[in-house]
Amino acid sequence: METSHNGDELARILATLANPHRMRVIAALAHERNYVSALARELGISRPLLQLHLAKLEAAGLVTAAFELSADGKAMKYYDTVPFAVTLTPQSIALAARTLTTEEGDS
Amino acid sequence: METSHNGDELARILATLANPHRMRVIAALAHERNYVSALARELGISRPLLQLHLAKLEAAGLVTAAFELSADGKAMKYYDTVPFAVTLTPQSIALAARTLTTEEGDS
DNA sequence: TTCACCTGCAAGAAAAAACTAGCATGTGCC
DNA sequence: GGCACATGCTAGTTTTTTCTTGCAGGTGAA
To answer: To pair with A107 at 20 to 30 A between CA atoms, which of A30, A53, B39, B80?
Structure first.
């Protein structure tokens, strides 16, 4: 659950979510957790590209990763969504904007 | 008020909001409507840059513009925020992802 | 051993976004 | 007229993001 974010955190979450591939990743993982290679096949994108997007999603705290050994001993990296709820309104943006650290201390 | 968005629309809104300058613009306009030049001074950024961000905000439907004549006859372009409320959850993303048109018809 | 599957990483190309600099228009006022 | 303010637009640079290609490692099974 998300309550208050600082501005940079919120900006990162929004930037991360604002991508078709990553939206589909969230959608796929919300349906069922999966490991990288299988997910890449499901989404029809290359594995390196998927890994890039997964890394961003994980960095934003929107998905989690866990290693698991398959029945035949292969190391699989399973990803799953992290439950989140962010509400965007002009007011919530205004509040978050107060804590932006992007240089310039607005005097 | 926002209810359901198609995926592309949501992606655009998120991408638009995911920028420090634009977050500050929303914050400033939520506080009080303003015209371009004054807003640029308030935020401490160049006018052309602000116009770029305002154009994106307007394209995403997050702010509106209206021309107004000042007391001394100058044409001022006033901007104001549009009330919006977008809630982001894994489910809402999943729903929106269904209507993404970014090429590939996932067979 | 070879094949099929899993992971990770990094270098470089391609595309998109952000930003600057500059010049155009117009107004009213001194 | 010249100054100060408002708007607009565009060309070009810089920066960031996205994506591809290709290689590395590991496992179990035929």
So the answer is: B80
